């Protein structure tokens, strides 16, 4: 029954990781079009903070080791990318790989919830 308490966190994680991924893919395209948008690394930092919160909740749950490893690796990639962007103003693809990993990890954990409730 304890697993079902992380379902909302998985949904939040999937949603925020998907929004982050869309932001990371679409926003650079919008900066090319002269709308006056400027890139702001703090938006990425906010998504990373949400991701850290959700990953910490899943890590404290009885999720599988595979899911925990995927989420830890993904959040490390995202945080590394955000730090590199804040310090050196370099945009890396690490955040995209980390976002995809977060989505996959949360989907796997959510699928485990569904299988245990059957």
Please specify the SSE layout and strand pairing.
Layout: H1 7-32, H2 41-59, H3 65-88, H4 94-117
Question: What's the overall average pLDDT, rounded?
Answer: 79
Oligomeric state as shown: single chain
Q: What is the number of helices?
A: 4
**Overall number of structural domains:** 1
Secondary-structure-based class equals mainly alpha
Give a count of the beta strands, DSSP E runs of length 2 or more.
0
Major sheet summary line: none
Describe the 3D structure:
This protein is mostly helical and 118 residues long. The chain has one domain. It has four helices and no strands. α1 runs antiparallel to α4 and α2 packs antiparallel against α3. The two termini are 12 Å apart. The mean pLDDT is 79.
